[in-house]
Design goal:
The protein contains three helices and no strands. The chain has 96 residues and is mainly α. The termini are far apart. Part of the twin-arginine translocation (Tat) system that transports large folded proteins containing a characteristic twin-arginine motif in their signal peptide across membranes. TatA could form the protein-conducting channel of the Tat system.
Length: 96
């Protein structure tokens, strides 16, 4: 009741073909496909530009004015030792 069935879509397609003709309708669908392809390519280009900008701002992409640091961090070779265990509880004197 609320949606289009297969018959509705077929009748609509036949009416479109009768109004516009097969060749013109085919050309319009080709133009729509080219538009969608161009839109997707533009979105991908925009995503690539945003990714490059993010990597450049966050230092993940090496820039020519800043060399890549390859020496390890001084604390990376000497990790912090775990804290010592707590002392044993004091033994209570049975004499009171």
């Amino acid at each position: 009741m609320g949606g289009f069935s297969l018959w509705h879509i077929l009748i609509f397609a036949i009416v479109l073909l009768l109004l516009f003709g097969g060749n013109r309708f085919s050309n319009m669908m080709g133009d729509v496909a080219k538009g969608l392809k161009s839109f997707k390519q533009g979105m991908a280009d925009d995503d690539d530009e945003q990714r490059r900008r993010y990597e450049r701002e966050h230092g993940r992409l090496g820039s020519p004015d800043r060399p890549i640091e390859v020496t390890p961090h001084p604390r990376a070779a000497d990790p912090v030792a775990p804290p010592p265990p707590p002392p044993p509880p004091a033994a209570q004197d049975p004499r009171g």
